[in-house]
Amino acid sequence: MADHIDVTDLPDALIITNVDVSVFIDDKSKSEFESVFLEYDGDAQFLYLRNFHRARVNFSCPERAAKARIHQHETHVCGSKIKCYFAQLKESPTNDSPHLHPPKPDKQFLISPPASPPVGWEQIPESNPVINYDLLAAMAQLAPGQAHELHPATEDQPGIVVHICEDPKGYKEQNIVQTKCPERST
Length: 186
What we know:
There is one protein chain. By secondary structure, the protein is of the alpha+beta class. It is built from four helices and eight strands, in the order βααββαβββαββ. The strands form three sheets. A four-stranded antiparallel sheet has the order 2-3-1-6, covered by helices on one side. A two-stranded antiparallel sheet has the order 4-5. The relative contact order is 0.12.
C-alpha cells in the first residue's frame, strides 16, 4: 500500500463510531473488538469513550491506520455496524514552544480608554448645547382649545394642524395616598 499511495499526511489514529455497549462492559467483547484492530498493528493502543459509544485506536504508523480504516469501515463488530474515521491531525507548531500563542491580531481596537492619558493629550472643550429658539417660541404659543397650523397645506401636500386638548372636567393630578405601615409585633 505504501508503494502506491503517499500516506505521510494521514493521521496514525482512527475514531471508531457506533461501538456496541457490550465492548465497554464485557471483557470478552472488549478483547474481540481489540483483536479486530490488533491484526493490523500489534502495538495499537485503545482509548474508549463510553458516553459517545466511540473508541480511538492509535496505530504505530499511518499506513496501518489507513489499512485498518479501509478494511473495517462499516463492518459488523460485536453485533454493531461500526464506522471508522481518521482522527484529526495535530498541527505542528511554528516554533518549538510547548505553550499556546495568542492569535495574530488583524486589527487592534482599544475597548476602553487607558487609565492615564498619553503624553501631550489635551481635553477638547465641549460645545454649547444646540437650542432651537424657534421651536421653544412655537411651543410657548400653544394654548389649550386652539388649533395651531404647523405646516400650511399646498396643492400636493396636506397641512399639519395640532389641536391642544383641554383638561377634562374633574380631572386633576391625583395625589398618591401614603399606605399605612403594618403594625409590628415585638
